[in-house]
Structures are given as structure tokens and as C-alpha cells.
Amino acid sequence: MQFSESMLADPRVFALGCLPAHSSHRFCFGSGESCELSLNGTWGFRWAPRPDADFTPWTTIRVPGHIQLQGGPSYPFGTPQYVNKQYPWDGHEHIHPGQIPQRWNPTGEYRRTFVLPEGWQRCRIRFEGADSALALWCNGSFAGYSESSFDTAEFDLTELVHGGENELVARVYRFSSGSWIEDQDFWRMSGLFRPVTLFTTPDAHLADIRVQTTLGADGSAAVQADCRLENAQNASALRLTLDGRTWQLPAGETVCVKAAIASPRLWSAEAPNLYPLCVELLDADGGVIERSDLDIGVREFGIHGGVMTLNGRRIVFKGVDRHEWSAEHGRAVTYEETEWDILNLKRHNVNAIRTSHYPNRTFLYDLCDRYGLYVIDEVNLETHGSWEKRNIIQPDEYTLPNGRPEWRDAVLARAEAMYQRDKNHACVLIWSCGNESFGGETLKAMHDYLHAVDPGRVVHYEGVAHDRRFNDTSDIESQMYPSAAAVREFLAEHRDKPMILCEYGHSMGNSCGALEEYTELAWQEPLYQGGFLWEYMDHALWKQLPDGRRVLVYGGDFGEAPHDGEFCVDGLVTGDRRNSAKMQAVRGVYQDFAMEVDKDGIRLHNRTLFTNLDRYDLTIALTCNGEVRRTVTLHQSLAPGERCPLPLPFALPEADGLWTVDAAVSLREDTSWAKAGFVIARGQGIFDRRAAADSVPADEALFADCDFNYGVTDGDFGFMINRNSGRLISLRRGGVELLAGPAELNFWRAPTCNDDGAAMPFHFAKWAQAGRYAQADKVERVRGGIRVHYLLATEAREGVEALWKFDNAGRCTVTLTWEGDTVEVPEFGLLLPLNVGLDRVSILGLGPEETMPDRERGALFGRWDYPVGKDEDIYMVPQENGARTGVVEASVSGDGMPALRLSTPGSMVFSAGHWTPNELENARHFWQLPPVTRTIVRCAAGVRGAGGDDSWGALPLAPYRYTLHRGDSFTLTLWVE
Ligand code: GAL
Ligand code: MG
């Protein structure tokens, strides 16, 4: 076996000396003694900018870990580089598929020693992930070579090791021909980023096991275990134990055990029932040579009657796309981080994960088996930049893999590695042939391979949506980012395959508008079986600023070129694992019980596949102005898939107030992922029965009509409006001023990432300063108030009238009236700069987390208290944030200060943060915002929705694009208490 670094550029060389891929079952000696020795930890390390350059002096490095995240703030081993479609070397060296950059192919050399544990007859080594290629030497002899960053590589070292100290040297190359088929949209980094383990195998060894279950008509399950043994001659029998029974067969190179479970509890995400399965290899005396363990689930999945079914029921995927990520460790994720994600997803009603875009650490599948999440397992394959260039789909002779023979084996080996390792996981329902790799013969061959080896699963490939030459490459129709309307249209014509969206709802920044358009479609159109939100987590990384602060950064922040900026921070959860308000919406649209509440009752829909509602508590509460008046808890039966109307358990009062009826489904018992009492579904009806407030117009004696200002005061409270600018310039009580500057008309909210992608700033630029630079052309006293007429700083000079009315109790009610033509605006309302000590908010409106007009699902009307600026660093690019919709009352208060109270007869969009929209949009990062000196309150009649079908052109849906018509008005009452 020969290796030379020139092979790095040969796509036909991707594995030298690699052991065959196999199932990821656990095994140990018959005695229970471990067969493994972890080689994680500190390794010796040196680095060179390319394999033939001078290496740095030896230092150390942590395994698992990325090379580029180690070595300290000067990045001595190169920096991470974030690119999406373009290949990382684009603009540096013009090369063609297979070739690798000549000037820049950073190479890390790892070195460590080990002493063979006593009694090991054989010695092997397992690398679970080496990005992008690994060459290994043991005691100076070449041991093997492997590409495919996310697939396991195992080498046999038995012939190379000796007693005493042994030395391993691994070279890890940042680029290899394999990099051409790893063009995933993510941070490009290299190194041994997954565990390295030395292991032995007992005298006889279960090298591979494939377990298949089939449900019988009588409810029993046939369980077939196909076992492949190594050194079978050293064993006499194989004993399989399952569900309290054992089956014993003579040992052989292959052993097929036909076991059974009499009446199995089936596996599903709703009830993840697992059965431990144990295989022992026995010697002639019945002694156990080796013991292997895995957990199996009994379930039946496939396309039946034209739709995907699980255990006989039509399935709906409520999914997310998930990359392995950690702001701390990059893709070298820990078990704890992964389990946190799984619990977080379960608690937000997510039932499925697509392992975009590569096989994950094996513990992910263990966790999904155990907690109950469906998985689309994806082959480590993406060639995006080889066929979509500068946003135009243009395949050419370099497009990969297509039918190119020299790439075929490398590509197919990746499917085999995934299948072999993960085949026994109940959670894996669908195999995905990779992401965005165009179409062609090789992908079709991959599909056929996966079907041949595994008839029990469905094969998915989205790429056929771009290249229909081999449409059968995918068993199901899968698309990315069409609007819900486009899905409807597609399915109206194409009824031959069930459909999912393997990516939808691009969750970048302030996004996730109108997700219900998609999620409801799954209950209207049987062929639409759900989707996977892009994406679960921001790929943000920690970085130290020159002043010592540690901050979260995105593409470009390491000075790398080229880069694709903020497109890597498009998650529902921040890189340091904080849920954004988008998760509130996810929880709302993905809930298993839909409940629509109106005055006639509650319409319930059980959207589970297998779980009756009576397993849970159904609590119905009556609230008035945010306070609970009554609660009733029911045990209501409702079978899976069924709907039923339920009358309200109490009469709805007619009395003055804002009444709600809140329905909540909660866990009656603890589960593995949440405690009893945890609410899994909510519904709410809002009944606005507020009587119009009667207010006595202020005595004329309270007015101070002076030369420069109009004042209204009783000596304790005070308002002042400037007669030039027509602006409110003072708002006080007891001598304390609340305003930090004049109130402004406001038509602007800081553009979101989605707005940027849709050129919203281009189309709406004039609204950015329209209110801020408005001029008053008339300021006059009227009975009980002051009327101001403004001309906006727009070319059309649209007019807005503000009528300020005051009462004797110190309340002021302003009504803003739009005098222009019908026009779409980002926002319409008032901006109040307040003094900074006002730092607490209480609202009666939708919450608790931020909402947008098109993102109210999952929010509840109620009284919510939170600090000013809560979560304002949650979007990595500063943008519109912190709004609460459906607000009828708000107060902003601070220690030792009077509070500003606000109310509206209708409802408003309210926000209280630290920066104006203009300030927000001027920063690229949170830490670049000016120092906090004010509290900025915005009260608006309406605001443009978040949108988010995609972030490259999609607009918020029409009903959520706020439009003004002549005569539209907004009324707000303010007072200081
Ligand atoms: C898809 C792709 C993802 C990601 C996303 C945009 O086209 O599959 O990997 O790039 O778009 O964020
Ligand atoms: Mg891509």
C-alpha cells in the first residue's frame, strides 16, 4: 500500500487501508471489560501552509477539535472561513474539480504515543471525523488514508504495533479532491474534529449486525438479525437475547437469527419504545467471548396508498434542519450540547430532524431513538458551487458528480458509510442522497443502492427538483423554499409522489413569518407531509475583540476572503444556544393539538398519530385583563386524527374588560423530556369588551399658551409641545422629565435580513427619515388640545395630522391621521426617546416573547413583564427586534422614576429597546451599536411583517405588508404615573 500526497488531488483515491463500514453497535469482552482506549485529549501538533512547506515547531492541540479554532487569538493555524456555494479557494486559484489549491492547503501533523493495553491481540483505530483528508502512520509505517470528513474511518494497526510505546502520526489536509464534494454551506475548517479511539476485537467479533423488524398481522414482530462475524472459527455459538427470550445458533461467518417479539410496543416519536438487543459470541464451554448491545425499535415505515405512513398512519414531519454546531467548538459538538438540542426540540413540538448535510455523531441517533425524533439521515455530499454559479443554475462539464466515472466510487462510498453505520436506528426513516449536488447517473445509482440494501426506508433527494433527468432518484417530491401557494399549485398538478419541503421558512434574523401557511397545509392536502425549517441554529463563533471582549461573530469576521457574511447565522437558536422568539412560533405551529377558541366553544383537532387527548390534562381558563378568573381541568377523549367541538365550560361575561379563554394541553405525567404540567399545546380566544374610556376635556386653565411652546400642566403633570416643530418635547410628573428628546412620527423599522434580501431598503428608503425630518406647517390650539399638521420628508410631502387632546387627570390622547394616498409603509406610529433609567416593561398584549404581525402563533395574550431591550442581541446582525403585537396597554418604568403609561382603544405594535431603527441599521454587529443612553419606545398602528419564506427575495405575505389608506388613524393615550 503506497501513499503519496499527489493522491490528494485524485478523486479515485479516497480510501486506502480502510476497514469495511459497519453498524455502530457497542461491544466489549465477554467479561464486560472495555475493548476501547480513547485517544481524545492532547496531541503533539505542527502546521504548514501546504504539505511541502516548512512546518512550525511542535506544539500541542486538542482532539477532537478544529485546527482553526485553536492556537489562540492570533490564529497561527489559519482562520475559519465561511462560504456558502462558492468554493473556499475561489478568487485565489482557478482550479477544476479534483485539483486542489497549490499555494494554500494547510496541513496539520498530529502526533501521539500509546501503550497497547494488556491482552490486546488485535489493534485498530477509529477516526469518526477528519476534515478533509487523513493520512496515518504508525511507528513510521503508513497505515491508511481516508477522505469524507463526516464518515468513520477505521484502520487495522495489528501488524504495526509492538510492546512498549507506539507512535501515531496523522496528517490532516485542509483540502483534498473530497473537498469538491463537501461544498456544504458552512464554516470551512479542518482537523480531527471527532473522537479518535483505539480498540481491539475479542477472539471472535461481531463485525456487523443488521436488524430488520416486520410486523405480522397478529401484532407480533419478526426480528431478523443478520450478523457478520470475524474469526468465527474461534466461537462456537451466537446467542441473541431480546425481550426476555434467547436464540442460539452455531457461529459462522454470517449468522442469520430469526427472532420475534410477541406483542411489541411500537416505536414512534410519540412513544419511543426501544428493546435492548444483545448478541453474545460463545466459546465451546459456553463462556462469553464478546458481548454486543444495541437498542432496536419496532416500527413500519414506507409509502402506502400514495402517502408516507408510520405504523399504518399518515405521518406529518414537523421538522428542523440541524447542523452540528457549537459557538465554542464548531462542529466538534459534545454529547451535552446535542442532548440539550434534543430536549429543546421536544419541548418545542418538533418531531423530526434532517441531519443537514452529513451523517452526525452517532449519539445523535441514539438520542433520537430514545427521546423520539424522526430523522432524515443525509449523505455527506454537496457540490453546489459546481453547478450553481452567481445564482444561476449552469451545469457544465465540471459539474459534480453527474455521471463522471472518476467520482462515482467516492460518492457511492459515502452512502455506504452512512447506511452501514446508521442502519439499525429506529429513528432513521429516510435516507437522503446528499444536498444540492445536481442530478445524474451517480445520484440515481445511490438511490438504487440504498433501496437494494434497505427496502424498509424511503430515499430522498431534493436535487431532482432542479434536474429531472433521473426523477426516480427520489421516492418523494422534495423542494426547498417554495411559497405555500406554490406547493399547493405544484400538488394540484403532480399527484404521483408525496411531498415534503426539506427546507422551508428561512429563519435568518427576524423571520419565520406566516409559518402556519405551510403547517396548516399538511392538514388540508394529504400529499403534503410537512417540512423542515431552515435551520435550527446560528453558526456563530466566539471571537475575542482587541479590547478583550468575547463576542459572537459570523462570516468575514476573521478577515477571510471570500466569505458569505451573515448567511451562516440563520437559525432559530443562537450559536450559544439561546432560543429566539422564533422558537415560540415553532412551538405554536408544530403543536400536536390544534385548538381554535371562539365564543361558541373550542374546536379541537388531535394531530398526533397514536395518542389520545385523554392522556393529557386539558385546562381551560377565563382571564380578564390578564388575570385568571376561573379554571376548569378536563380529561377529554379525542382519538388521533379526530376533531371535535367542545362547548366553553363557563359563560362568557359581558362585563367591561379584555377577556380571554385560554385552553392548554399539559403533561399529566413526567416524560423523559419534560415534567408533569408542561404545556404542549395552547389555544386562545380574545374577547375585547372594553368600554370606551370617558374622559373629561382638560380645563382651559391648564393650558399655558406661550410664545414658543404650548404647555398643559396642573403643576404636577406636564406636557409641552413646541410651536415651531409641533413635537412633544416634555412629558413629566413631579418635576421628573421622561423624554430624552422630542417624540417623532415614525415610518421606519430597521431592515431585517429578509428585507435586505428583498431590496426592501431600496424600495422603501424614503420612509427611513420621513418622520424624523418631518416639518410642522401648522401648530394650533383647539378646544381641549393642540392640532399639528406635519409634512413628511418625502418627495410627495404627504401630510399627517396629529390631534393632541388632554384631560384633567393628566392624560393625553393623540390621534395620528394619514392624509396621503394608499401606500405600503414599514411602520406607522410614534417614536418616544425616553430617559435611560426607564428600563422595565409591562404590557397587556401578545407575548411573552417578541411577535410580529405574521408571527403571532405560539404567543398568548396576557400581562407580560420584561426588561427593556430583552433579547436585543439575539439577531447577529442588528435589525428590527423586540416588537409585541396586539398590545392594548403598556407601561415603561424604572426605579425611583414615574412610569410612562400607554394605551390604545384598538391594539398596537409596541417595542421598547435601546436604539432607534436608524441606529440599529448602521451596525453590522451588536457590539458596534452606540453606548446605551436612552430607552426608545415605539408605538405603532402597524408594522411590516417579518416574512421569511426565503431571505433572497420573498416578501412578507400580502396581508402582513402594512398599508396606509387616506384617513387611516392611530390613537394612543399617554400619561405619567
Ligand atoms: C439551501 C441549502 C442550505 C443553506 C440554505 C440557505 O439552499 O441547502 O445549506 O445554504 O439554502 O441558508
Ligand atoms: Mg448549498
UniProtKB/TrEMBL annotation:
Keyword annotations of the record: Glycosidase, Hydrolase
Source taxon at top rank: Bacteria
EC number: 3.2.1.23
Organism annotation: Gemmiger gallinarum
The protein's name in its UniProt record: Beta-galactosidase
Reactions this protein catalyses: Hydrolysis of terminal non-reducing beta-D-galactose residues in beta-D-galactosides
Domain spans labelled Beta galactosidase small chain/: 711-973
Upper classification of the organism: Bacteria, Bacillati, Bacillota, Clostridia, Eubacteriales
Similarity field: Belongs to the glycosyl hydrolase 2 family.
Broadest EC class assigned to this enzyme: hydrolase
